[in-house]
Amino acid sequence: MSDAKVIPIADQRGLLAIPSAAGPTPEHGPLLDALGRPLRDLRISVTDRCNFRCSYCMPKEVFDKHYEFLPHADLLSFEEITRLARVFAAQGVQKLRLTGGEPLLRRHIETLIEMLAQLRTPEGLPLDLTLTTNGSLLKKKAQALKDAGLQRITVSLDGLDDAQFQRMNDVGFPVGEVLDGIAAAQAVGLGPIKVNMVVKRGTNEDQILPMARHFRGTGIILRFIEYMDVGASNGWQMAEVLPSREVLALLQSEFPMQALEASAPGETAERWTYADGGGEIGLISSVSKAFCGDCNRARLSTEGRLFMCLFAHQGADLRGLLRGSADDSALGQALRGLWSQRTDRYSQLRSSGQTEGTPAQRRVEMHYIGG
Ligand code: SAM
Ligand code: SF4
Ligand code: SF4
Q1: Could you read off the pLDDT of 357-367 as tens digits, one per residue?
Q2: For residue 228, which atom of ligand 1 is closest to its CA?
């Protein structure tokens, strides 16, 4: 018998039926879901692999040498990703974010960026093209990413204390190399750079003020993310969530802060500035203040499944359509059918105590659908 990890992959990767092209969805007009939310933002996971093992995302005990990552043939090719992104753009998507796993591990990622940078909205505008990375390969790749047409970048960094950071990424990766990657991205003009810090109570809350002091006045936007109950393997507990209001109170204990207006509908971060002009920070309160009401994000998994919520347990197999006989018009119609039936609002339901719809053990993992 194989000693492969027994993870309910079939369940996690269950399929969502694609409404038939002959369904009731009109072919034209603004695409809104069942709760009136448009589709604006597509996050594309380009690999399910990562060189880090952050305990809140890919804990070592689960994602060990026995874990079966997707074989290369199952991944969407760059041509397939670009074709789908074009169909999404035709249906209203204005922003593409490449993610993973660790997107910079996907070979020749800059080729994909070049292809995506050519896409236009129906109004003829380029799409907002960005990427989220753990920063480990950024020093080496920043220039190539910029040259390929990437506009800006988000780097994840959970603290500045080297020993603590090495424990959090759980592969002993030094913080200095991530900081070098951020400096390289800044030097080539991949800005404005955002730095995402996941805050876990009892693990790295002592890094909130050092991180704020470090990035103040640099033009880099530091964003504090509440530790979320994504996936089925991180052993999430509410006790480990440090609500954004506590993060803000801590920041205010040292720096006077002023609230800013949201820059776009569906913005995940609440924006604040340092009153002395030291720059902007963001608070992403995914747990304590659900923002499902204007959630306009869809996620495309590494193997081409469309997930319409971070907490979904079923995705729609767009790769099957791509590799079958569907033309772009049929793909667009399938997307309209799927999005128009969307009712997802997991965080809102969690806040009101109703989470029965998505049992934790059946949720997809974040590295597979992308953060
Ligand atoms: N590997 C890349 C990185 O870490 O930036 C991209 C993929 S990662 C899944 C995307 C984002 O999700 C990262 O900013 C990461 O910190 C965040 N993330 C992962 N698990 C999380 C969790 N349980 N709660 C909150 N954020 C999480
Ligand atoms: Fe890898 Fe990013 Fe997940 Fe950390 S958060 S394990 S870097 S995919
Ligand atoms: Fe969007 Fe789902 Fe997150 Fe709500 S829980 S904000 S619907 S991804």
Answers
A1: 455 656 778 87
A2: 24
